[in-house]
Write a structure and sequence with these properties.
This is Tripartite tricarboxylate transporter TctB family protein. InterPro entries: DUF1468. This protein has 163 residues and is mainly α. The chain contains 5 helices and no strands. The radius of gyration is 21 Å and the shape is flat.
Length: 163
């Protein structure tokens, strides 16, 4: 079995467990007044689980590939050294660093840094365009989450004392 099908099998197992939790365990503790609502807190997880299961099954059954294509796998695990592993691992490390720095560095600084460094790892060199776009996108997302949705995100680092 090809590598993409093995990954789809793992994703299918994880999403089946996630779907079981979304369909059978999340709604048991809802108060009675919320049980009459058309949208429950588990609605999005249910939709996400169903879509992920369908996507994993499509890949696992090979329905996404045309029948006339070759049967060779797209990723050859025997030639992993020829792939761009260093940028991929650097992006994974950057995601971990972003998650760890989100609270102490603040949302604005951590997100602008993540977008800028991530784009640099991927090969973007026009910093005069990258920095304003990263700052604008971060500011818009912070405004929407903080002001429109009413979810508090610490915008600045904790040592500045500004919240």
């Amino acid at each position: 079995m090809a590598l993409d099908r093995w990954i789809a099998l793992v994703i299918l197992c994880v999403t089946l467990a996630y779907g079981y939790a979304a369909f059978f365990t999340m709604d048991q503790l809802l108060p009675p007044f919320m049980q009459r609502n058309p949208i429950w807190p588990s609605t999005f997880p249910k939709v996400l689980a169903v879509l992920a299961i369908i996507a994993a099954l499509v890949i696992l059954l090979g329905l996404e590939k045309p029948s006339s294509s070759e049967k060779t796998p797209d990723i050859d695990y025997r030639r992993l050294g020829e792939y761009q592993l260093i940028p991929a691992l650097a992006l994974l490390g950057l995601m971990v660093a972003y998650a760890l720095l989100l609270r102490p560095a603040g949302f604005l600084l951590a997100t602008v840094g993540f977008i800028t460094i991530g784009a640099s790892i991927l090969g973007e060199r026009k910093y005069h365009i990258l920095l304003p776009v990263a700052m604008l996108a971060t500011g818009i997302v912070w405004y929407l989450v903080e002001q429109v949705l009413g979810i508090f995100l610490r915008p600045w680092p904790f040592f500045l004392g500004v919240s």
